[in-house]
Amino acid sequence: MLLSLTAMLLTAPFGGLLAKDNQTLTPVPDQPMAPAFDLKDPEQRPQRLADYRGKPVILNFWATWCPPCRAEMPSMQRAHEALSADGVAVIAVNVGDDAQAIGEFLEETPVDFPLPMDRDSKVAQSYPLRGLPTTYVIDPQGRLVYSAAGERAWDDPKLLDQVRALK
Q: Which of 14, 18, 65, 125 could cross-link with 150 by S-S, CB 3.0 to 4.6 Å?
């Protein structure tokens, strides 16, 4: 019951937002420092935001039960493939799922960028999220410079160019 209520509350603001309808990034006022995290991925490897300092980061918050989150993951993989040679990282913090649920998702939708697990949602709560998916673009100095609430096509050239410009 709690999980379904949480799912409804988190996805409700963005349920009708289609990627093709809104391909913009919103500037984050005052560009605060991105809250740090030290999480484990499904294979129990450490994932720390601090390890990416010095390069732009696309930081996505998602869950396996969130349809728009699932829908944008293939484009995030394509963005990762397009940007990794440019020194841009893509990280998708899973909010609330366990390693088994993430593994089942990866069987359907394989991605090879980091998927840290925020099992208790403490990291997600340290960011100004209003729903899932929400994505932040972090500059090389660790500041939140852009946000995107709702699904996007992350391989859109316009979005990729905005992120590359942070190098």
A: 14
Which uninterrupted H or E stretch holds 162? helix 157-164
3-state SS assignment for residue 166: coil
Beta bridge partners of 40: 46, 117
> Which pair of tokens denotes residue 67?
């349809």
Q: Which of 1, 6, 3 minimizes the C-alpha distance to 132? A: 6
State both tokens at 160.
Answer: 């990729």
Other residues' Cβ atoms within 10 Å of the Cβ of residue 43: 8
pTM: 0.88
Distance of CA 50 to the CA centre of its chain: 16
Q: How far is CA 19 from the centre of its chain?
A: 14
Burial 73-106 (b: 16+ CB within 10 A, else e): bebbbbbbebbeeeebbbbbbbbbbebebbeebe
Q: Is 3 within 8 Å of 65 (Cβ atoms)?
A: yes
- The yes-or-no verdict on residue 3 having pLDDT over 50 is no
Q: Is the pLDDT of residue 137 over 70?
A: yes
